[in-house]
């Protein structure tokens, strides 16, 4: 019997986010009889690191300071790679792509697979330091990685335009666990009880960390516009720094007199439960998205989505929801209103068609098989059953 393929994942952080959860899903879905995996986080390793550990996969954090890569960190990574002696170093996000790629080269030219999960529209779509690292990676893409996996067509296109080596790039879209993200009528009522909402009211929600890319202001202003037309709606926001301690967001909510309708829950680990409570899920991003995880999760829960036309969002939703321009609160409010004006049975049917689309095109099983095929091509090991 062939020895398992050893994969060493390196990621910038294991805080809650799309890339972190994508790593978690891949690592916990790959067959442990065919793969031996371990994970290194350059900075923090919670809370997603704990989820990965609970699956029996070793996780280590270097606790490096965020920012431009410290050369000392590269040499620490070099020693870690030599100790693990992996068949493949799989890196996630720009900082880890750069540091992991250099460390793997120094440790003995280990095969490296980069992972890109962002769409770069201009310099302003990333922090200055991150854009610089992405630019350096473009120059080094001909030398460091064996393959470059993008999670969206939009991500691939913008990085090719930036100078990344197109010959090494391929698209493997996010995969979703349809056994975990399922429609759940019990959660729908439980969340309404938790928020003390009327059982017959409508609920629109968004899961996103607080960041200019996500454009929470667009969501909140659209909420104010919709409430001018109908009062039977509440709004649910959750994600890192999305709570009353965020003074900027809280002040916007209060300035529009929405405090009785907008509920901010902060970072939550029960996304499936919250999505299942919604009538409509939304992502109001202004820029930078590639293949947003939260859209697929909501669709898998049978919830129709209204999304801004950023990254591959329109491709994910297609005709199972609504796609509107970014930075346009009126368009967002109008799209919500159109879906809420549907008979409940029609909106439910639309949500079920959204789940069927995820099942047919974007299941975790499909994604995992594609990663396995990439690893097999690189190592020449028969990692597929």
| Helix-strand category | alpha/beta
Helix content: 40-55%
* CATH top level assignment of the largest domain: Alpha Beta
* Total domain units: 2
Largest sheet: 7 strands, parallel
Number of strands: 13
Tell me which CATH architecture of the largest domain applies here. Answer: 3-Layer(aba) Sandwich
Strand content: 15-25%
What does this structure look like?
With 385 residues, the protein is of the alpha/beta class. It folds into 2 domains: 188 residues, 3-Layer(aba) Sandwich (Rossmann fold); 177 residues, Rossmann fold (3-Layer(aba) Sandwich), CATH 3.40.50.2000. It is 44% helix and 16% strand. It is built from 15 helices and 13 strands. A 7-stranded parallel sheet has the order 3-2-1-4-5-6-7, sandwiched between helices. A 6-stranded parallel sheet has the order 10-9-8-11-12-13, with helices on both faces. It starts with a strand and ends in a 6-residue tail after the last helix.
Topology (SSEs and partners):
Blueprint: E1 5-11, H1 18-29, E2 35-41, H2 48-54, E3 59-61, H3 71-84, E4 88-92, H4 94-108, E5 112-116, H5 128-140, E6 147-150, H6 153-162, E7 169-171, H7 185-195, E8 202-207, H8 216-227, E9 233-238, H9 247-255, E10 262-264, H10 271-276, E11 280-283, H11 293-300, E12 305-308, H12 313-317, E13 322-324, H13 329-340, H14 344-361, H15 364-379
Parallel strand pairs: 1-2, 1-4, 2-3, 4-5, 5-6, 6-7, 8-9, 8-11, 9-10, 11-12, 12-13
